[in-house]
Design a protein that fits this description.
Blueprint (H helix, E strand, L loop, with lengths): L1 H13 L10 E6 L4 H16 L2 E6 L2 H10 L8 E5 H9 L3 E2 L14 H4 L8 E13 L21 E3 L6 H12 L7 H9 L6 E3 L3 H8 L5 E5 L3 H5 L5 E3 L7 E10 L5 H12 L1 H9 L14 H6 L4 H6 L5 H18 L3
Parallel strand pairs: 1-2, 1-3, 6-7
Antiparallel strand pairs: 3-10, 4-10, 5-8, 5-9, 5-10
Helix pairs in contact: 4-14, 6-7, 7-14
């Protein structure tokens, strides 16, 4: 009997994440994007490593945060992937816990911008993206975000609607270029309103922009880097602008549900996702830009992603508190000055 117990203990010690993970279920809430790739590159390998079961719930941010709120007293999700602003909203609502980064072996490998995005210790960034201007380099030159409104260019510009993910960041940078960078974004929205009849379209889906540029209906549009690949395949010269005011963008983060009974396992999964190996594989498949600074990418992948220390340092992200506290006002001003 004693030998059997010793053998059992030895087997437990050899388990990658320890015997405590066995027969346990971790439930995660994530975006529906690229789930086949995530299953192959992240979920299945983690299950094999931990000996646990991973349950994946997908949906848009509104639906997923609403579910977390509805189950606040008895959480059904252990870890969630959300935007920076949604993480702050969840924190304000008491839905998430502080992340014990001492239990994340890969935390120190992250770019500084991803270590504590909201400055409250409640989230860790796993991917970010740059937002800048894709433009026809044979037709125009972009040195500033304000160049989009130049008389000779504005009639060939598509600008993101304020209701899109790219809308507020683009307005934020336009405001900086115009010297009107108040949190209410009133200055840049009014400037757009004055030019609204000249602008080709206030787009809602970036997928429509590639065709518009191919047909020469537009010469320029603010886009997220994740949309850049489609422009590189055009048979016309398109460049990615590096305006003097800088680039903006967005970040997605991982959070731990408050009251979850599986926080230790959730932290292990978080650390796995942030590892150099997993972040490299996701980046090479063009799924996510890496937040891990040790990731080294092929030239092809790097050209299609937000990549490198210089880029990470240059991003001017809208503070989450500014976004949460001003969203309703942005929409109101937009509807008044630009229209629906």
């Amino acid at each position: 009997m004693k030998k059997a117990l010793i053998a059992s203990a030895a087997l437990a010690a050899l388990s990658p994440l320890g015997a405590t993970a066995a027969d346990r279920t971790l439930t995660i809430s994530v975006y529906a994007f690229a789930q086949d790739d995530f299953k192959t590159l992240v979920y299945d390998p983690f299950e094999a490593k931990c000996g646990c079961k991973l349950v994946v719930e997908t949906g848009n941010s509104v639906e997923r945060l609403a579910k977390m709120e509805a189950n606040k007293a008895n959480p059904v999700v252990d870890l969630a992937a959300v935007s920076m602003a949604d993480a702050l909203a969840a924190s304000r609502a008491g839905l998430i816990d502080k992340v014990d980064t001492t239990k994340l072996a890969n935390f120190t490998k992250l770019y500084d911008v991803a270590k504590d995005p909201n400055g409250d210790g409640m989230s860790v960034g796993y991917t970010f993206y740059a937002t800048s201007i894709a433009y026809r380099s044979d037709k125009m030159k972009i040195d500033s975000w304000a160049d989009l409104l130049k008389p000779e260019y504005v009639g060939h510009v598509a600008f993101p609607n304020v209701t899109t993910n790219q809308g507020p960041p683009a307005l934020y940078m336009l405001g900086q270029a115009l010297g009107k960078d108040t949190p209410d974004l009133k200055g840049p929205i009014e400037a757009l309103g004055e030019k609204k009849d000249d602008i080709v379209t206030f787009y809602e889906k970036s997928s429509q922009l590639v065709q518009l540029m191919q047909q020469e209906e537009i010469w320029a549009a603010p886009i997220g880097r994740f949309s850049w690949a489609g422009f590189t395949k055009l048979d016309v010269p398109v460049a990615w602008a590096t305006p003097k005011e800088g680039q903006t963008g967005g970040m997605n983060v991982l959070v731990l549900t408050k009251g979850s009974k599986n926080q230790d396992l959730a932290l292990q999964f978080m650390d796995f996702w942030l590892s150099t190996d997993i972040q490299t594989k996701l980046a090479e498949k063009l799924v996510d830009s890496p937040a891990n600074s040790e990731v080294k990418l092929s030239e092809a992948a790097a050209n299609n992603l937000t990549y490198g220390e210089e880029t990470a340092k240059s991003l001017k992200l809208i503070p989450s508190a500014v976004a949460l506290d001003n969203r309703a006002g942005w929409l109101k001003t937009w509807n008044e000055k630009v229209g629906q």
